Amino acid sequence: MKDEPLISTTTSNTFVYIAFLFPACAGFLFGYDIGAASGAVESIKSLVSVSTVMNSLLTSSSLIGATVGSIIVFWAGEPLGRRRELLLGASFYLTGSVLSIWPPASVALAFTNLGRAIYGLGIAFSMHAAPVYISEMAPASIRGMLVSAKEGFIVGGILIGFAVSAICDAVFSDQGSEFRVIWGVPLFFGVVIISGMLVMPPSPRWLMLKAYTNTDPVVSKSYRDAATAALTKFRRGATPEMIEAEVYEIEQSLVQEISTEKSSGWSEMFKARRALIAGLGLISLQQLTGQPSVLYYQTAIFKAAGFGSFASSASVIVSGAKLIATLFTVRYIDNFGRRPLLFAGISMMLAALIVLFVGFYLSTTDGDDENGDPVISLPHGWPPVIIFALVLYVSGYQVGFGPIAWLIISEVFPLNLRTRALSAAVTVNFGFNLLMTFTLKPLQEAFNSLQPGKGQSYLFLLYAVLTVASIFFTYFFVPETKGKSLEEIQALLQSKSRARVDIENSVN
Known about the structure:
Number of helices: 20
């Protein structure tokens, strides 16, 4: 039988929704950078001479900063706490944006690269803290929806980034000024995040962790009282008895987690094997199944489908599909559960990759265009099929891997390891993203050496094989966490009597 929730259904979640908006805006700024970067870089290139190496650096400097930042938060995240980490991330967003937009042309490249790297630190701190803060303050009944909705803000940010770049390109006669407007937009959202998080309470579970690990009884009690006060704000309408019951549940979970563990470093993370395999496995497969590479080919696919010069702007269509799919997941994840949506999303990706493999295998390539993109000639009748496959692929990613991998990471790790687990996940995510980006061309050339002109198709086949592996991985290693409090998830994951992780209720 399903456990009764600690918090009454009459409890108001209004404050939870308000608190959610600020870490979600931090996610929006991550997505905005993805969507706006190419337009801003083109603007800078019209202002000053940019070498090939410098062009690559401008494009990837925020990702490099994010990768470095994700390593830093492994050690800094726990002492800072989720709230202060979000505040620091927003400060990096602001600082990076200012450095990117103010310098004159003579020093634009140096300051812009520095600004993009600092902005990347903001991405790392924000993307590390946001899912944890949301999951730790939200009740179990809406936790999946809110953590997934953060992904929706990221996709929305991508769309707005594309839109702002397009508008600036159409409005400004002086193209060299566009990047100042494009990279100036995050200033507003950075101020909103800082203003909001300054009045939001810290995560009650982080406060309880500080209370339990502090040896000074006076300080420990002050942290516990602060956790109770924070939880009272997040559970508007709950009685004091309900609040105390949830605080006690968190406390008992910590007793079980920390009684035999004195540290929360790498060694202790490896002891949480089930959580480590499920969480980091999903984050790795999220990238290894080809998301960066498939999106790399979207312009070539749209050109082959007859979009011509509009192909470079057709990414708005892809982003729109991603947003609709994400909103579907947000709406139904707490109804259907994590595993069913993962199976559905991965299966959609698999079907799309098979179609892309066949379509590209049957196509011919006629060299590269002026931008270095392959010129593809698809067989008669295939262009709309390939476009549909591309949209199906990105939609499947947003139904499954996109939001759910981060949700699982934020749920399955013990409280005393959660911060460092998220840091490891962010590092793995950005690391594999860089790996997929840098190995794309070498892999394609290697496959071309086996069968000339078919390198792209074999890449899609490789990703299809990895999606099949992902289905088996999900079946055997990913738990169902729907409707469980974080403490209930920990109790069930730590049970040694189960041969396979399966924490669905016996009666759904």
